[in-house]
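We were asked to recover a plausible sequence for a given structure. The inputs and outputs are reproduced exactly as logged, with field labels preserved.

PROBLEM: sequence recovery
POSITIONS: 198
GIVEN STRUCTURE:
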């Protein structure tokens, strides 16, 4: 069984890892900020162009969006096979585990509440400031749109955090060749019983 390709497992038996949108949302914000910095200078930035600011936004933006794409194309897939759970990584069987070797964890509610409150407050403030700015003729429209976009990203981050906290199950799955390292795998709560019940 070792090394078997995921393609041979029927689709209805696969329980794929799922994700929120944190890296993609924040990566998009950084990229948009880099574009906002570049726009006033046109196609030929002068010598005094703020390359440091542009690079400080573009590099993490590209890294985070690239990571978002990478993790979605390399997601871990779990498959129940009799009394075992098969762990597929990068499309091939990596481990065969007993169900009790995979632990379920619960995110701390207090931490979740604090993060949610901060994101909710940022969403409201940025959206309010951006909307107010957009109605003032003296304000640059691109700045207003960026502020609104930042508020939207905070809102997406809040929804993503809430979804992963309340609609998903967090698993700790052993990693091949390591006694101490575990991979955090998120699956939708509706599919937990497919893995952990007979």
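RECOVERED SEQUENCE:
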């Amino acid at each position: 069984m070792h090394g078997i390709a995921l393609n041979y497992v029927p689709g209805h038996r696969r329980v794929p890892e799922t994700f929120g949108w944190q890296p993609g949302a924040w990566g998009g914000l950084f990229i948009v900020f880099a574009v906002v910095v570049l726009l006033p200078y046109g196609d030929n930035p002068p010598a005094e162009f703020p390359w440091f600011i542009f690079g400080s936004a573009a590099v993490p933006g590209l890294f985070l969006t690239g990571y978002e794409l990478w993790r979605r194309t390399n997601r871990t897939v779990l498959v129940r096979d009799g009394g075992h759970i098969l762990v597929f990584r990068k499309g091939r069987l990596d481990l065969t585990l007993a169900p009790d070797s995979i632990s379920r964890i619960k995110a701390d509610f207090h931490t979740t509440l604090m993060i949610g409150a901060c994101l909710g407050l940022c969403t409201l403030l940025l959206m309010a400031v951006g909307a107010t700015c957009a109605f003032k003729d003296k304000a640059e429209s691109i700045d207003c749109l960026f502020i609104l976009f930042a508020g939207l990203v905070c809102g997406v981050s809040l929804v993503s955090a809430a979804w992963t906290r309340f609609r998903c199950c967090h698993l700790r799955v052993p990693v091949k060749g390591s006694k101490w390292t575990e991979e955090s795998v998120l699956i939708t709560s509706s599919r937990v019983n497919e893995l952990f019940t007979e």
